[in-house]
């Protein structure tokens, strides 16, 4: 077994009222596909060609999916899986209604997998960055990127954790006049997604502005108790 440590990042527990209460999430190293598994098997000394290994793995995946969909249980060295149906039935002869019932797959680790996990080593990296991140700003009227903005027109803001949500009165998108230091709130949101905002700009005087996003949105679509803010690293200009 590999001796590499599994890295963990800590996130604020917004459900708890206790101070310094966090939960951990794994910082994943990457994603392993059947193609990667084939390479690893060859590196271990498998005599099969890569194409043959991928074909076998793909067939295994397909057969497992088909048999699960037919009502079989699946037991492998890695996991055990079966179907379950959630919802209320009114009569013994009732049928499954997609609007009222949910068909789900249940997975559980095998004893061997659980024993392997007890040998894993973990390292806490510290607090994760849950603040919004502004990566790019586009004026949709002129297509200017990260520079010119047009008053009264739509500004596209791209990044991470940008969704404008929360009860705090400070939540919103602001343009800060670098000459007067006035904070001007953009009051109309046309698009509001975690990775992209579409904002109708207010009437602005000519000058240099700093863009700021304030929200209570955090990881996994949860809300935090305090406002998180991010400022764009480049100034924006109105001619």
Helix fraction, binned, reads 10-25%
CATH topology of the domain at 133-238: Coagulation Factor XIII, Chain A, domain 1
What is the distance, rounded to the nearest whole angstrom, between the alpha carbons of the first and last residues? 62 Å
DSSP helical segment count: 3
Number of strands: 15
Which CATH class of the domain at 133-238 is shown? Mainly Beta
What Rg, in angstroms, do the CA atoms define? Answer: 26 Å
Provide the succession of SSEs: EEHHEEEHEEEEEEEEEE
List the uncertain runs.
none
Largest sheet: 5 strands, antiparallel
Q: Any idea what the shape is?
A: elongated
Helix-strand category? alpha+beta
Rounded mean pLDDT is 91
The fraction of residues assigned to DSSP E strands is 35-45%
- In CATH, the architecture of the domain at 133-238 is Distorted Sandwich
Domain Bvu-2165-like IHF-HU-like DNA-binding: 7-126
InterPro entries: Bvu_2165-like_IHF-HU-DNA_bdg, DUF4469
Pfam families: DUF4469, HU-DNA_bdg
Domain DUF4469: 134-226
Give an overview in words.
Residues 134-226 form the DUF4469 domain. It holds the Pfam family DUF4469. InterPro entries: Bvu_2165-like_IHF-HU-DNA_bdg, DUF4469. Residues 7-126 form the Bvu-2165-like IHF-HU-like DNA-binding domain. Helix content is 15%, strand content 39%. The protein is an alpha+beta fold. The protein has a domain at 133-238: Coagulation Factor XIII, Chain A, domain 1. The strands form four sheets. Strands 9, 10, 13, 14 and 15 form a five-stranded antiparallel beta sheet that branches. A four-stranded antiparallel beta sheet has the order 7-8-12-11, with no helix packed on it. The longest helix has 20 residues, at 50-69. The mean pLDDT is 91.
